[in-house]
Amino acid sequence: MQAAWAPQQGKMPGDSSLKMKSRVAMMRRGRSSAEGESRLDIDTSDIVLPPHIRSRLDDLFTQIEREFELLYAENLALHDEVKVLNNRLGIGEREESHEPSDSLFGVKALAKKSGSQISQKIKTTYKASTSRIVSSFKAASSGCQQVREYRGHRDGVWEVSLSKHGPQVIGTASADYTARLWCIETGSCLLQYNGHSGSVNSLRFHPSQDLVLTASGDQTSHIWRAQINLPIPFSGDFPGVHGLQKSHSSGEEEVETSEKEDAPDDIGDHEVTVVRSPVLELHGHTGVIIAADWLAGGTQVISASWDRMANLYDAETAEVINTLTGHDSELTHVCAHPAQKLVVTSSKDTTFRVWDLRDKSMQVNVFQGHTQPVTSAVFAGVDMVVSGSDDRTVKVWDLRNMRSPNTTIRTDSAVNRLAISQSSMTIAIPLDNRHVRLHDIHGVRLGRLPRNNRQGHSRMVCAATWCDDHPMCNLFTCGFDRRVFGWNVNPQSKD
């Protein structure tokens, strides 16, 4: 295109039309001089075009000349518009004079230059507007504030859970082979459990007693007593707390006050209870137990393992009541319904299953919809299940309609163990990319926990749990950066 355009630089369109007219005159003579020199044997005087062809050619070349005149007029108008734009943008006449004003090339160059000026102005305006938008995002996210950090684990923290009985404390399960209980208000460690010989993968509190259930990579689940020393006074009775220094544990469990070699990091000025042995050990799996939970009422326990099975135990005798089979790959999570004997198991086979344990037939429903391993599935309300997956989606299902999810939430990273606020029906979605996103049960995005150099996780967020009625911290998160955070979250704020 440049080679074709170069010969025309510095010439007016009118010159081109004159040249075209001369060519027409030459054609009317029948041949150009060059053709005449190459074909000397032809008598050009005898060649005459038919009248209708000559008339047709005259019409065509008249139309071509008219088109060139229109093009020239349009270029002049464009040149005037460029001047107006330059005046508006403050470009001086001196800058304009450097361009050939009487050529198409000069007009195009001016148009290109003014276009770049306009583009730069648009970019500046866009940047300013996006900055205002980002500022509004930050203002909206200010409704999510980090309140407390619970420091002490020496390896990644797989799960955080909230107590359901007595004063509120949180528990954490860590890859450092320990489980810990923490005071929400002070951030201090109250109890450390050292009974497992492998990574502690999950921790759940008994619904009505001071008992804790942990699942481990050592292929066992433990039930142990949560006897703690509270550094601040609480009202009301809490079995296992008052009179702790005067009481002694049973022969099946060993409780000691903190020793130097076992003391957690940053324990503060108070004593930390160290529990070394469980009340009950639950055996029966041949692989890593990834999670375990109490069934409604607390008389039975369900555990999920990498051996592709879930075992149902009697929580008093530690006997295996039943074994749930059917998954084609390792299990990744298990959750029990808070009010009914329903259990949901998640698996790497891209499905999760809801088991009805209210009768002996143990009816099971298989939910298919994810394309990669389901990392967690939890009950929401009475008849809904929310599932998260490595396929970067969270799906909300109705137990009465298993064919397709009611809502699909798409994220920008793999989803880990999510949590549902039963009061506000807000979903906290911990992600591999260190973020925690908040959505309502209908999929509407409500916010995102802040993450920067001063607050938030620096590695993947493994799990979350809600504490709906606590005045200071209503959401807790844990991650593979060994850190546990307490947040004050306003679910209504949007980013």
Defining key terms:
6 helices, 495 residues, alpha+beta, disordered N terminus, 22% helix, elongated, four-stranded antiparallel sheet, 32% strand, six-stranded mixed sheet
What is the secondary structure topology, with strand pairs?
Blueprint: H1 2-5, H2 13-28, H3 33-38, H4 51-89, H5 93-97, H6 104-141, E1 144-150, E2 157-162, E3 169-174, E4 179-183, E5 189-193, E6 200-205, E7 211-216, E8 221-225, E9 255-257, E10 273-275, E11 280-282, E12 289-294, E13 300-305, E14 310-314, E15 320-324, E16 331-336, E17 342-347, E18 351-356, E19 364-368, E20 374-380, E21 384-389, E22 393-398, E23 407-410, E24 419-420, E25 426-430, E26 436-440, E27 445-448, E28 461-466, E29 475-479, E30 484-489
Parallel strand pairs: 5-10
Antiparallel strand pairs: 1-30, 2-3, 3-4, 4-5, 6-7, 7-8, 8-11, 9-10, 12-13, 13-14, 14-15, 16-17, 17-18, 18-19, 20-21, 21-22, 22-23, 24-25, 25-26, 26-27, 28-29, 29-30
Helix pairs in contact: 2-4, 4-6
Describe the structure in brief.
With 495 residues, the chain is α+β, with helices and mostly antiparallel strands. It contains six helices and 30 strands. The strands form seven sheets. The protein has a six-stranded mixed beta sheet with strand order 2-3-4-5-10-9, with no helix packed on it.
